[in-house]
Amino acid sequence: MSSKNLGFIADLAAGVEAPDKSAERGSRLGAGVLSGRSSRLADLASGSVVDNPQQLVDPARCRIWERHNRDYAALNRDRCNDLIESIIAQGKQEVPAIVRRLSGDPDYDFEVICGARRHWTVAWLRANNYPDIRYLVEIRSLTDEQAFRISDLENRAREDLSDVERARDYLRALDLYYDGKQKNMATRLNQSEAWLSRYLDLARFPEELLGAFADPFELKISHVGTLKPILKPQEKRALVLAEAARIAQLRREGNAEAPATVPDVLRALVASTEAPIAKPKAAPKKTGLEASVIRTETGTPIVRIDRTDRKGVSLTLLCKGGGTRAEVDAALKTLLDQHWPEQG
């Protein structure tokens, strides 16, 4: 800030003060107030303090920004009940919504950047026995990209905004503000590309898949690791979407067989892609050790017949069984005569 401007601020503050030095000596309180006012004017002029005015307004004069990250149509008494109870208890809305001033629109004065749930709640209260409650807003001058980032920062720590809503907001913003460049967007949000990628994957899940869940807003980015792999191969994707449609139909019919929770639905979708486990072939019936072993006259095992089929005979020489070479030769000759007779 130039010395000329600083001088102007000092002169402006001085102009507020009484020129009578005796008055300055007689009132420390007045001097303190004027000193604080001077300091405030200097801070505003230097840009170290941003003065964003707040107002209490009629929510009917505020419209929701079309790129707001919350699904306003999905708001209801249940989703806003904690905020309803809080405002009733305090008698007012304590945290201001962030808005931009509109011009040229006869129906609305402000556009809501952050605070759609507060807007819905105040509007609901005014229509339900609390007509005097007004909508507290903080007015700012913002570009669309700035509005997106401020809205994201405010809502990122809020548990009442679902991962699905946040993911859809990120996917829209990727092309609107960052030319489809994920790295640039992650940098502006001060997050890693991997973190952003999971949200974008969640936003790209088909609507048919989300229809399998009783409340799609209960889906988290932690579920992406389960769903993404089974949607990538085309043949598995078809099976998953068919199962999702079946589950959705069961739910519409009120069928108790429909999976109730998110983990239940995930298990059903994964199971739909798994090939049926083939039953193992029955093992060939054994005839018993005694029937497949050739023994000496004293009962010593010397040859085991493992398999006999049209191609030949498989056998094992029991060298450690205790038989003699001559006894084995005789056993093998008998087997040759049975399975490979000499041709005359």
Explain the overall architecture:
The chain has 344 residues and is of the alpha/beta class. Among the domains are: 3-46; 205-274, no CATH class; 289-339, no CATH class. It is built from 15 helices and eight strands. It has helices spanning 3-16, 21-26, 28-46, 77-90, 116-127, 144-156, 163-178, 182-189, 193-203, 207-210, 224-231, 234-252, 262-271, 289-292, 325-339, and strands at 54-57, 62-64, 97-101, 110-114, 135-140, 293-295, 301-309, 312-317. It has a five-stranded mixed β-sheet with strand order 1-5-3-4-2. A three-stranded antiparallel β-sheet has the order 6-7-8. α4 (77-90) packs across α5 (116-127). The longest helix is centred in the N-terminal third of the chain and has 19 residues, at 28-46. The relative contact order is 0.06. Mean pLDDT is 80; it is low at 1-31, 44-49 and 277-291.
Question: Can you summarize this structure?
Answer:
The chain is of the alpha/beta class and 344 residues long. It is built from 15 helices and eight strands. Among the domains are: 3-46; 205-274, no CATH class; 289-339, no CATH class.
How are the SSEs ordered, and which strands pair?
Layout: H1 3-16, H2 21-26, H3 28-46, E1 54-57, E2 62-64, H4 77-90, E3 97-101, E4 110-114, H5 116-127, E5 135-140, H6 144-156, H7 163-178, H8 182-189, H9 193-203, H10 207-210, H11 224-231, H12 234-252, H13 262-271, H14 289-292, E6 293-295, E7 301-309, E8 312-317, H15 325-339
Parallel strand pairs: 2-4, 3-5
Antiparallel strand pairs: 1-5, 3-4, 6-7, 7-8
